[in-house]
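Below is how a single chain appears once it has passed through the pipeline. First comes the sequence as given, then the structure the pipeline wrote out for it. We keep one example in the README because the format questions we get most often are answered faster by looking than by reading.
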Amino acid sequence: MWLLWTTVRLAVIAYVVAAIALYVFQDRLLLPAVSNVPDIGLGQHTGYDVQPWHPASGYAGYVVTPDGREPLGTFILYHGNAESAENKLPLADVFVRSGYRAVLVEYPGHGKRPGTRTMKAAMTASRSALAESRAQWGGPIFLVGESLGAGMAAQAILGEESVVAGALLITPWDSLASVASEKLRLFPVRWILHDHFDAVAALERYTGPLVVVGAANDTLIPVWHAERLALEHPHAQFMLLRDAGHDDWFSSMTADRWQQALRLLKVD
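Resulting structure:
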């Protein structure tokens, strides 16, 4: 009996310690350090130019501008975790080729942007990017987010619904709490999380074009989260990539699929 109670007490202590660790270190778990930041290649590329973006708040990522014409508007790109703004140049190329400026947002503590690597800091930077882009260039402004970045894009829209001309959310969550509860069933993660990052609630008042892209083979954020996000929003258009997972969705976006996405966003 003594051995049983000792085992139970140790198990309870281990559980409590693990729950406390999840609460204290969740930013490190959600936003791991970014290693091997690639060289984005500043300056002239074929068809566009890449420069660091320095709005009023200081270095905040990169701006990619099409050659030989005034941009039709701005696409703001929010990257996923374990990435940096430098990883998003191939994605920016899609929108720049369509005549738009692309802003590659960097979160504090990621890539070459100084600061503390926390979800709150990333959310603040995401919202600031929208405000600063609007102040610098005006509209129209479209938001594009991948994975964690989709959650950041949704939070940026909250309270600024009239500013955003359209949003493209790729392999998104419906809420961080929903995904975390699925991954960590033994823990009360809805109490542990500092913020639920509820994309469904954040987009509740948004009436502009909303395109949600889900990957059928996604094992990190299973596709039903993207499906629920689309179903909960009356104006959302859902695109399913049947041959893609969480990390290889980009290679499954053919030219026809990109044209479909842009058409649904009502991009001119």
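Strands lie at 43-45, 48-53, 61-66, 74-78, 101-105, 141-146, 164-170, 210-215, 236-241.

See the next section for the split statistics.
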